Amino acid sequence: MLRLCILLGISLFFFFEIQGQEHYRVVSYNVENFFDTKPDTLTQDRDFTPGGRLHWNTERYTAKLLKIAGVIEAVGEGDFPAFVGLCEVENRKVLSDLVSKTQLAEADYGIVHQDSPDPRGIDVALLYRKKYFRVLKEVFLPVALSGEKKSYSRDVLQVTGILQGQDSLFRDTLHFFVCHFPSMSGGEAESEWKREKAALVVKNRVDTLLKYSPNTALLILGDLNGKANRPAQAFVLRTLSSDSRQIENSRLYNTGYYLLHRNKGSYKYKGQWQTIDHILVSGNLLNGQCRLQAGRRLQVFAPLFLLEEDKTYYGYKPFRTYSGPRYVGGYSDHLPLYLDLFFRKF
């Protein structure tokens, strides 16, 4: 009994110590077809124009803009998130409108984005609060796909910078990778090779970073279009569960692995919840070897306003913008994820 009380006391000590620490929330969110209303002759965006099949107009765009901003504010739970990785944004304009023409203007977000060669014209981006993070380098890594004809998927975005706490003594270099791997179109198994190619782009870059700096702190976030145990992660990225007993600095750990066999996740397909969006971290963000640390498990942000009744399979599902060609005025077909970072006090 005495031993149990001691262990409980130690656990509570560390719990309240972490609770009282300054934290930096990292959000990953696939915002589903976040297009402006202007046609782009270089991409397949005609559906998302006033004269297109979906009749995408200024009113609908503005509603989407305000909804996405509202989600980002809400997931901060009292403060705006420090970092937001976004998937399926069309261009710089929608990002600029998001951070300057909504309540997010208060957060003073910086933007890292570049148009990618994706045929649909949807990209990844990173928003960061300027008071916490100073960007040192941004790299856009192409993902080339081979097949009958050479094509490209979305670029992988790498951002390197300095994260600084309120106490100037606490600062660390941090690497972000924001990804949107190729879809499962044509079948999950049949298309896995595409995601493996995207994962290899990330793995090669991660290996280079770790070669020159074995204690590199990094996060990989975004829509990887596959579960945690699929080959792109398990065999290419060699990810393990963040609940693993032994955490190695040089390995990558999936903070959402615990959701793998649960009927809960960020995306619902044919009545089954699953997590195809992920936040991966380097081992030193979990094992105390780095001054900066991460929570062990990501969380799915699923308030009722982001859900609607699933009349086909029962329960609830994400409240999306369109149901087929019919405008329903929701948010996205994905739910956002979040994970907190904090500086460990030695």
Automatic annotation (TrEMBL):
Name of this chain's protein: Endonuclease/exonuclease/phosphatase domain-containing protein
Top-rank taxon, per record: Bacteria
Xref: Pfam families: Exo_endo_phos_3 (PF19580)
An MF annotation (GO) of this entry: catalytic activity
Origin species: Odoribacter laneus YIT 12061
Ranges of residues in domain Endonuclease/exonuclease/phosphatase: 26-341
